[in-house]
Amino acid sequence: MKKEIDWANLGFGYVKTDKRFVSNFKDGKWDEGVMTSDDMVSISECAGVLQYAQTCFEGAKAYTQKDGSVVCFRPDLNAKRMEDSAAYLEMPVFPKERFLEALIETVKENIDYVPPYGSGASLYIRPYMFGTNAVIGVKPADEYQFRIFVTPVGPYFKEGAKPIIIRVSDLDRAAPHGTGHIKAGLNYAMSLHAIVDAHSQGFEENMYLDAATRTKVEETGGANFIFVTKDNKIVTPKSSSILPSITRRSIMYVAKEYLGLEVEEREVFFDEVPTFAECGLCGTAAVISPVGIINDHGKEIKFPSGMEEMGPITKKLYDTLVGIQQGTIEAPEGWIYKIK
Ligand code: PLP
Ligand code: COI
């Protein structure tokens, strides 16, 4: 039986569900893993994750489709990206096949928490891994824990599908040859001061510029950018220090193959931003959240699409992406993993 949750009014928060997956890495190998109702983690006070932030994570979503099936959107790409994150942080890789099996099993075990079709909510899936044994010299841990929990969520921004206001950050999120391209917890720690400050000044997110020259658009704390030019071309920043968003890669494909739009992944200079017609933030949590205004140190860049609703092209991208995820539009092969 579905849990009694006010699905339509869920925000993006943590709700403890019934089951989570846990596997431990010791003596050079991962154990079989278990599904447990224990939501607590017990590790050494000197664990690598606690001392030197050796941790990475992923974010995926499961949806109820129109016909009642429960599906997950492109979790194979989360599995692959987590392999890349783990390798870069000198952590053992949790094999892709096992990642997918565990993810599907965790959703199945919590099936009553998958929000119903049409509620606007979805089940957020959070795989993560961290160093568990004592490490005091700066080096990688020898023991790790891999976990997956799920939590039902609503929109990431309280505005939902309404345009938000963001600001250009004076602080940097990632260095040119640093960790911006992987999903390391430390990247998010780096963004906490900037996001608290942004919120206190009435902005929903930070636009980070490239740390080396501060002339190019990178991403926000939790999403990639997509822009629409006045002649309806989709432009997204290319940089080696941003997270390769699965949503963004999907949107670029959909724009080209489903909507016949021209797409460009390239360096985007901040100077060019005022020439764009529409702007959106894309990610698993953000889906596509339209940006109405970018505040650059008091100077406002106002997109012609305004503050009332998504721009027309952003809306088309949004409807197509969400339609694919919810099963009302046929998905490209391999994008949808059926869970139930
Ligand atoms: N950029 C950052 C910094 C993120 O945290 C996320 C969220 O995962 C994204 C981009 C979007 O990536 P994805 O579409 O794979 O969720
Ligand atoms: C996601 O979209 O999965 C993220 O990890 C972003 C985060 C801001 C919740």
Please, could you describe this protein's structure?
The protein is α+β, with helices and mostly antiparallel strands and 340 residues long. It folds into two domains: 7-153, 2-Layer Sandwich (D-amino Acid Aminotransferase, Chain A, domain 1); 164-326, D-amino Acid Aminotransferase, Chain A, domain 2 (Alpha-Beta Barrel). Helix content is 22%, strand content 26%. The protein is built from six helices and 17 strands. Strands 1, 2, 3, 4, 5, 6, 7, 8 and 17 form a nine-stranded antiparallel β-sheet that branches. α5 (246-257) links the parallel β12 and β13 (263-266). α5 packs across α6. It is globular, with a radius of gyration of 20 Å. The model has no long low-confidence stretch (mean pLDDT 98). Bound molecules: pyridoxal-5'-phosphate and 2-OXO-4-methylpentanoic acid (COI). 2-OXO-4-methylpentanoic acid binds at residues 59, 222, 283-285.
Compact overview of the structure:
The chain is an alpha+beta fold and 340 residues long. Helices cover 22% and strands 26% of the residues.
